Amino acid sequence: MDLQLEGKIALVTGGGTGIGFGIAEILAQEGARVVLLARREDVLKEAAARIAPNVPHAPEIMVHDLTAPDAGKKIAAEAIERFGHVDILVNNAGTSEVLGIGGAEDRWQHAYALRVIAPRQLAEALLPEMRARKFGRIINIGGTFEVQSIINSASVMNAARTVYSKSLSHEVAKDGITVNTVGPGVILSEQIDKIFPSKEAREDYCNRNIPVGYFGEPRDLAALVAFLASPVARYITGELIAVDGGSHRFAF
User: Of the chain's two ends, which shows fewer C-beta atoms within 10 Å, N or C?
Assistant: First the structure.
């Protein structure tokens, strides 16, 4: 299937590693002009160099801290100045942090800035160009907000962002813009390597929690993102879709 992504400009936050890198790679392979954004310039340069040899358009990079004041507005302004517009925004950057009762206030503020404030600012600042072109795709990564036994900032912020995204999808639907959220399960990354350092620990977790029996890879999720980013997926908006090997426990 031709996803019709040739020449589309795609901005992927947290695009240097893990899920973000997997998304950026598959979008670039489908012909999109990908812009990788993160805090560490060296990581972004390495990621761009890895992708470039096998794609039609070498990736660009943008170095920003999404938790800085008004980061979303500043990133959008730079992107429009450099590229004219952005067709596809993938809000992938995020952290999962168990805080529990009495969690440090600065960590709550960090999570809020990273997962709610910056993505909202970015989306709203890029909307005028999307509306003018009658095409836009906004895809948020990290949608799981099932109740856990201890308070995790990611789940709380995901809930806020998912509800915002659902409402936003209604406001912009007639402008040719879709807004969707993808909820990853356990996807292999540096963070997962730290949480499950041994083969035995991974097997035990998979046997208890993941019906398919193994951890996902970034490309498992990236394939869905590429589809949602394409004109082909024009009739899908306001959705939360889990990519978790069947781990999701709620019926609805």
Answer: C
- Structure-derived torsion over alpha carbons of residues 136, 252, 218, 155, reported in degrees to the nearest 10: 90
Tokens 């925004």 belong to residue = 89
Sheet arrangement for strand 9-13? 60-63, 33-38, 9-13, 88-91, 136-141, 177-184, 240-243
Radius of gyration of the chain (CA): 17
Please indicate, yes or no, whether the overall pTM of this predicted structure exceeds 0.85.
yes
Where along the chain do its domains lie? 9-188+219-243
Mean pLDDT of the chain: 91
CATH number for the domain running over 9-188+219-243:
3.40.50.720
Residue 67 in this model has a pLDDT that exceeds 90: yes
**How many other C-beta atoms lie within 10 A of the C-beta of residue 96?**
14
pLDDT surpasses 90 at 173: yes
Q: Hey, how many other C-beta atoms are within 10 angstroms of the C-beta on 128?
A: 12
pLDDT at 148: 67
pLDDT at 39 over 60: yes
Spatial separation of the C-alpha atoms in residues 176 and 106, rounded to whole Å: 38
